[in-house]
Specification:
The complex is a heterodimer of chains A (277) and B (208).
Chain A (H helix, E strand, L loop, with lengths): L2 H15 L8 H15 L4 H9 L5 H9 L10 H15 L8 E6 L6 H13 L7 E8 L2 H9 L1 E3 L8 H7 E5 L2 E4 L1 H4 L3 E4 L5 H5 L4 E6 L8 H13 L1 E9 L13 E4 L4 E4 L8
Parallel strand pairs in A: 1-2, 1-7, 2-6, 7-8
Antiparallel strand pairs in A: 3-5, 4-5, 8-10, 9-10
Helix pairs in contact in A: 2-4
Chain B lengths: L2 E2 L13 H7 L5 H11 L5 H11 L3 H14 L2 H10 L5 H13 L2 H5 L2 H5 L4 H11 L4 H14 L3 H14 L5 H10 L4 H21 L1
Classes of the chains: A alpha/beta (277), B mainly alpha (208).
């Protein structure tokens, strides 16, 4: 790939996803590009790029899937889960609610470890769980991982932070190295595709009490980060919370949210609705 | 099990009609103004309406969404509006405009910078120095060196030195050396010049 081809490809990725790849990531981009050229039988950059731009046989989706990072595990950064049950949800239920539904969004959800972790954590650690209808939704731009999330089959590494008791309670071992989530739990979580920089897509998911949006905004440039933050703001109910990854700070992205410091985590809150004066 | 799957209503999209958005932009509810402002950015005539709205908008979130939207769309009309705001009496409007201009592609501002650097208002010249920081080193160095040579306002001189210290090239060294003599009686400016010269020389040495 020459300089011009690399630049055109990176511009394409940026326009479609908000992800920024610079010369420093050239090897990463070239590897994935080569994989897709091989998979589609394309013999040159020009022929593959034409195929991509025309979205022949859903190539855009396949291409974006190849660029996402999906390494995660259950109970990752569980101090935020502790914060969810100890601070965020108790605050969400303080005010009178029109209904008994609590909505939580895990985006990006990768292969499902995060939304399933939220579900298990709440069943185990939030005493009020039975008094509410808890709706957990997992979304990701990578449609391939959503299929894996729905299947709910995980390897040993993904379960390394879970106790033997929790594994026995919520999983069925399928072979020496794999465990499948029990049907009740798998069927309780919804999964959907979403592009965080497309407002029409994020709005379709409705408004949430809590959003987990961890370790994705770091891949965006400033402008896309702001757009994603604005979209997520719309997806939060007034007073709702958003949790970012440990190295991310919403304060550096947008002034839309208030910072909330709790004993287990720093999270960001959409202010309650108010009128001027 | 308390976990449920439901089909939930989407978040309301903003109105698609400019007149309705104009009305929403004057709402007493900041969230409504925020959503209207966000939608107007991509609409014909939207930038002009937002420019008028900024003059009276007090909510920082609404202001921010207007600035970030103008920066994102990066149109000449948006740039013109922001450049005008550099003269605002309101410091937060000036800094919001400056940040948004800095986020725009450098080539969009390149043609306007020399004019701003000759502006009769020293505050505008000072803010224009910040915009030069986002330009290619060679262009910024030339602009900053020219300005420093003719500038008498100490704060503007300090701003040029700060930019030169960060991205200046060797062609600025003679101007900096002449300025060192000119500002010998000002310890702060003399120090700023010394720093700029050192940084440029260090960059030169490390590039060899």
């Amino acid at each position: 790939m020459n300089e011009d081809e690399f630049r055109r490809l990176c511009e394409f990725i940026y326009r479609r996803t908000g992800m920024v790849f610079t010369e420093a990531k050239r090897y990463y981009v070239e590897r994935r590009m080569a994989d897709r050229m091989l998979a589609t039988g394309s013999t040159s950059f020009a022929s593959y790029f034409a195929r991509l731009r025309s979205d022949v046989r859903g190539e855009v989706e396949q291409f974006i899937n190849a660029f996402t990072v999906n390494e995660t595990y259950f109970y990752r950064e569980d101090h935020q889960l502790q914060c969810l049950s100890a601070d965020l949800l108790p605050r969400r239920i303080l005010r009178p609610r029109a209904n008994k539904t609590i909505r939580i969004w895990s985006v990006p959800c990768s292969t499902g470890e995060e939304p399933y972790s939220i579900a298990i954590w709440l069943l185990e650690n939030w005493p009020q769980a039975d008094a509410y209808e808890i709706e957990i939704l997992g979304s990701d731009i990578d449609t391939r991982v959503l299929d894996a999330a729905r299947a709910g089959l995980f390897g040993r590494r993904a379960l390394m932070r879970l106790s033997a008791d929790l594994i026995a309670k919520y999983f069925e071992q399928t072979d020496a190295e794999h465990w499948r989530l029990i049907d009740d739990l798998r069927q309780s979580i919804s999964f959907s595709p979403v592009n965080l920089v497309e407002a029409a897509e994020t709005r379709a998911h409705g408004a949430f009490d809590v959003i987990f949006c961890r370790n994705v905004l770091i891949y965006f440039d400033d402008a896309s980060r702001r757009t994603a933050a604005e979209n997520l703001y719309e997806n939060l109910l007034p007073g709702g919370f958003i949790c970012l990854g440990h190295s991310e700070s919403m304060s550096r992205i947008s002034p839309l949210f208030d910072v909330c410091r709790y004993s287990d985590a720093i999270v960001y809150q959409r202010p309650m609705e108010r009128a001027d004066g | 099990m308390p976990l449920v799957r439901k089909s939930t209503a989407a978040v309301d999209a903003p109105p698609a009609d400019v007149e309705e958005l104009k009305t929403a932009l004057a709402s007493s509810r900041p969230d409504e103004r925020w959503q209207a402002a966000r939608a107007l950015i991509d609409m014909p005539g939207g930038i002009a309406l937002l420019g008028a709205g900024l003059a009276t908008e007090a909510d920082i979130r609404v202001r921010e969404v207007i600035f970030s939207g103008i920066a994102r769309t990066a149109t000449p009309e948006g740039a013109a509006l922001l450049l005008q705001l550099l003269r605002s009496e309101d410091a937060s409007l000036r800094s919001g405009a400056l940040d948004a201009l800095a986020a725009m592609p450098a080539d969009m501002l390149a043609g306007r910078l020399p004019e701003l650097l000759y502006d009769e208002d020293p505050d505008v010249r000072l803010l224009a120095c910040e915009l030069a920081r986002g330009m290619p080193s060679e262009d910024a160095t030339q602009l900053m060196a020219d300005l420093l040579e003719r500038e008498s306002e100490p704060n503007v001189c300090a701003a040029t030195m700060d930019v030169l210290a960060e991205i200046g090239g060797p062609q600025a060294l003679p101007v900096l050396q002449r300025s060192a003599e000119r500002f010998a009686s000002s310890p702060f400016l003399a120090f700023a010049i010394e720093i700029a010269v050192k940084r440029i020389k260090t960059t030169l040495d490390s590039g060899r």
